[in-house]
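Margin note: ligand = S-adenosylmethionine.
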Amino acid sequence: MAPPPPAGEHYFSAHAAAGPTELQSRQVTLAGREVEVMTAPGVFSYEHLDQGTEVLLRSVPAPDADREGAVLDLGCGWGPLALTLALDLADAERPDVTVWAVDVNERALDLVRRNAKRLGLSQIRAALPAQVPAGLRFGTIWSNPPIRIGKPALHALLEGWLSRLTPGGTAHLVVAKHLGADSLHSWLAARLETGLPSAPQTGRTSDAAPIHGAVAGSGAVAGSGAVAGSGAVAGSGSAEESGRDASDGDSTRVHGTVSRTTTSKGFRVLSITRTR
Ligand SMILES: C[S@@+](CC[C@H](N)C(=O)[O-])C[C@H]1O[C@@H](n2cnc3c(N)ncnc32)[C@H](O)[C@@H]1O
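Resulting structure:
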């Protein structure tokens, strides 16, 4: 478990980018190789790879690069999931698939950018939630979600992002049993059966900074800052850029199934597949 944050602060508080004296180098194993990454205090589990994250990485298959849509690490921290997703896609010779690393903590996003650059993973885009184009849809979502933001905010967060799965798309979430994995499973099953309201398709273009070069598309910044609990925000890219599903009208609801894998160390991996 990560050490507790300083009094009055949380790992999900907004922090400015780490200064040179705060940056710390770590050796970790991601996608089967030893890599060096940078972390810093003020970011979730900055001293080591979190146990839940490790469980997720061991339990789920590499992303299917042929599935329609982009790939998302929701609540990326310093980036272990996004970096692994991009390494897996590089192994599959699919560096063209964009991996979005999303967090409300600017310091985390800065670390992801540094780590992606260090590992030569130019398909990672680190962004605040409000900077992700609204029309973007995801074929794969991995998350060690921020349970500690509280149930209402967590539910709103998951509804917002899971409703952006492409049909057939899959999300894998790791949650500790003692932090409510089983009740989250029941809630997800009920919500996915009733159907989530589909996410808005339109808005303005984001300015999410890619690791190298400019983001395709143009326009004003859709907004910035911490958007606790919401993934459905203004912003749009072209349908080509976004992986948008043209048949997915705003009036439809997003249905799916959720299965639960029990792992060692008291974690559950909840796997959601969008069925329609
Ligand atoms: C449990 S940590 C996981 C971090 C990282 N994925 C890892 O495995 O080490 C959850 C992350 O979610 C972020 N977070 C909190 N609220 C969020 C929100 N509304 N939208 C996106 N990310 C959020 C936190 O800042 C934190 O980095």
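Residues 24-274 form a domain with the Rossmann fold fold (CATH 3.40.50.150).
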